[in-house]
Write a structure and sequence with these properties.
This protein is an alpha+beta fold and 161 residues long. It has helices spanning 2-69, 71-78, 105-117, and strands at 86-91, 96-103, 121-131, 137-145, 155-160. It has three helices and five strands.
Length: 161
Amino acid sequence: MRILILFVQIVIIISFGYRVILDRQSNDLKEEIEQKERILMVYQDSEAELRDAQAKLNDLVKLSSNIFIYENVWVDLFSKLPDFKKMNITIAKGKSFEISIVSTPSNIQEIERMLKESKYTKNVVLASYTPDKEGAIVASLSGELILDKEFSEIEVIDNQI
């Protein structure tokens, strides 16, 4: 009987020790999981920043690839531009463009003539023509570019003198 009681006490002590070891391992595992979750959150934030930077880089690559498409166009159209205060050129998806310009009436007429006579443009229209507060004219011209390739994104070129 004493041997049975001694055996039961040894089993109880071993099971208690085993329970302490399992509790400690469980707590260590929880701490390790929490630490790895924190690391994962840092990686997710970094991944989001990387994806954002990659999207911006892709936009720049698209823009820079389109620059070579119309380099000759700009050289032809704007190498002999008359003076202007401000010009904003928007190239929409495809081949259409719009130019907003602030200048004198004679310079706007000259720009319109150059665009209509260019081999790179067609359907050029003077969309609006209004005076501003300083005596200059704010005009908007639109049309289509004659190119081999269409633009993939809307592009804005803003130039101010």
